[in-house]
Amino acid sequence: MELGPPGGSGPAEPGPRLRGLRGADAAASASSLSRFGAEAGCRASAVAAVLPAGGSGERMGVPTPKQFCPILERPLISYTLQALERVSWIKDIIVAVTRENMETMKGIIQRYQHKRISLVEAGVTRHRSIFNGLKALAEDQPNCRLSKPEVVIIHDAVRPFVEEDVLLKVVTAAQEHGASGAIRPLVSTVISPSADSCLDHSLERARYRASEMPQAFLFDVIYDAYQQCSDYDLEFGTECLHLALKYSHIKAKLVEGSPDLWKVTYKRDLYAAESIIKERISQKVCVVMDTKEDEEHVGHCLEEMLKTELNHVKVTSGQDLQQIILEQCYNFVCVNVMTSDFEETQRLLNMVEESNLSILYPVVVISEEQKLRESLRQGTTIISALIKERNSGLIGQLLVA
Ligand SMILES: Nc1ccn([C@@H]2O[C@H](COP(=O)(O)OP(=O)(O)OP(=O)(O)O)[C@@H](O)[C@H]2O)c(=O)n1
Ligand SMILES: O=P(O)(O)OC[C@@H](O)[C@@H](O)[C@@H](O)CO
Known about the structure:
alpha/beta, Spore Coat Polysaccharide Biosynthesis Protein SpsA, Chain A, Rossmann fold, 2 domains, five-stranded parallel sheet, 16 strands, elongated, binds cytidine-5'-triphosphate, D-ribitol-5-phosphate cytidylyltransferase
């Protein structure tokens, strides 16, 4: 078992975007968050996460294990890590990878500046990988450098669209019930085949749910369960909640999860994940121009038109660029009125490159205000298509209107 040092710090890159919590949810989570935040602050690691990432991805049908398959030229696992890193009260993230992929994983941690990550060696099955991750947190292990958490989250590394609200729900429920897991309605009906591959019986779909991730447990509940586990369970089991019930006699609290909790398993899931990520990072466009005051400025006209094509268009001037980049905007439209504006545009390009944003996020440069005004509709259509398509072959478009 190899424990890598917790990672460094630095801006995360694009990935699944968190929706803000609203209304009662926000109030409830704020109190729970503050409770965890407070406890996490005093106990430094009240909540930890274990991410099994030691599989081979056979069902994906490609040589690269699916957790390392690129989406927008970034490994799938990096999006999951980023989603967890955005949750400040998760103090340690333990990732189980095979020995042969250890260096690849370390490279991803460094390239994308992931933090709070410790690596352990995966097992030959998912349960064994999870068990190795738990051992890294248990204080009864030699050379253990991590403190035992009160609650541990278990989440598949190939489920990138996990959000803070569902993590908070399962963690809060686990604290109260000992175990908790996200569930989703079944899409297909479950049937039981007979020995001769004929229908024996089918289950009433409405009475059943699909078990998804994340799941959360009081650490001792799940660690004790894994310590008692039979080899059969470790070899063939797929359900951590079942182990908590069978060995720790804890009935997990089930929490309705969002539709995006699904696991990347087949190649089609990669395409689906890419389109979800593209959609999420295309929702914010920054129109950069040298003035905010002049409402007749073509930049404001462009902004109004872009709002009909894209969700969120923010107008800013050159001075706010650093803040915009820190807010993780990935789409910039620079309206150049005078040739001097090109210096502003070059400054933006330098900032985007320095800020480590992926080169896939197009900066659209427009020159010639008057001509743009004449072809504003066409310019809007082209800009929206560039942002939505985000094709690496179209990097750094210079649109001369
Ligand atoms: N020995 C294993 C097997 C799986 N996993 C991880 O458990 C998660 C969910 O498992 P699954 O979707 O089955 O992944 P694979 O086993 O890689 O897929 P396949 O069954 O298609 O080979 C994945 O993050 C996978 O990397 C693991 O840590 N150790
Ligand atoms: O190894 P597999 O991908 O088949 O199993 C993983 C899933 O079973 C698991 O992630 C959820 O069902 C929740 O337990």
